[in-house]
Amino acid sequence: MYLPLVVGVDGSEPSLRAVDWAADEAALHGVPLLVVFGTLWERYEGAALARELGKPSAGLKADVIVRAAARRARRLHPDLVVTTEAVPDEAEQALERAGRNASMIIAGSRGRSGIADRLLGSVSRTVAAGSDCPVVVVRGSDDNRALGGRHGRIVVGVGEASAAALRFAFSEARLRHVPLAAVRAWRRPAHDTADHPLPTGEPARLYEAYAAKELDAALEAAPSDVTVRRHTVEGPARAVLPAASAEAGLLVIGRRTHGRLGRTAHAVLHRSACPVVVVPEWA
């Protein structure tokens, strides 16, 4: 039995781009796609879908929104199995519940404007922090699609919570036949810390060499059929990883705790130039 991919919709332009990305990813993996809408948000339905249907946005109902999203996915991949679900719940709860029996959740990065914009941004962050399966937040331009995008590589951040993220990144790189850039950020501490083996004042090259050693250890299990390129970059991960996303089709990061995103994940979700997938350490 293949677990479906779940995509959250509300009719906004970002959620429709998330449908496109999710349809590509479901077709790539050969799994069904489940389109989910939390109906407590009907007052925030999007103008983009209204234009597509030729109806005023105020008249759209949940079943119309999910059916239109399903048609959009099938236009991209006619053989894709697509089902829909409109539930009387908040979007966060609807997506997290559907994600308990899913391989992945896909969400738009934000709504269309104003209050809806803030709420949808909150939803994507909440789901990324609380889901037990990988969560993709679709960021970037319209051509940042799972298939056929302009950037032919995946970037994965290698840090304390990277084992599951690396497994995910290896799998995606293999399926897409693209190289994987493994990025390890490093910094020279301003003062001595108990969790760093090198004392303050050592030359920068020693810190970089230590980061390279950690990166090599993390990549020992890299599959032979995936091209992996190693990068050690000086700077905080919350700045290094968004910079690396500029030439990527997907950025993969790990998450250590349930219900909370760290500073790096927050920065990446706000500043990445491409879709971001947050992978729980236990996934």
Strand-helix topology:
Layout: E1 5-8, H1 13-29, E2 33-38, H2 47-53, H3 62-76, E3 82-87, H4 91-99, E4 104-108, H5 114-130, E5 135-138, E6 154-157, H6 163-176, E7 180-186, H7 204-218, E8 228-234, H8 237-244, E9 250-255, H9 263-271, E10 276-280
Parallel strand pairs: 1-2, 1-4, 2-3, 4-5, 6-7, 6-9, 7-8, 9-10
Antiparallel strand pairs: 5-10
Helix pairs in contact: 1-3, 4-5, 8-9
Low-confidence region ranges? 42-47, 55-59, 112-120
Beta-strand portion reads: 15-25%
CA-based shape = globular
Distance between the termini: 18 Å
Biggest sheet architecture: 10 strands, mixed
- Relative helix content: 25-40%
Question: Which strands sit side by side, in order, in the main sheet?
Answer: 3-2-1-4-5-10-9-6-7-8
Number of strands: 10
Number of helices: 9
Could you spell the SSE succession in H and E letters? EHEHHEHEHEEHEHEHEHE
Structural class computed from helices and strand pairing: alpha/beta
- Mean pLDDT score, rounded? 84
Radius of gyration: 20 Å
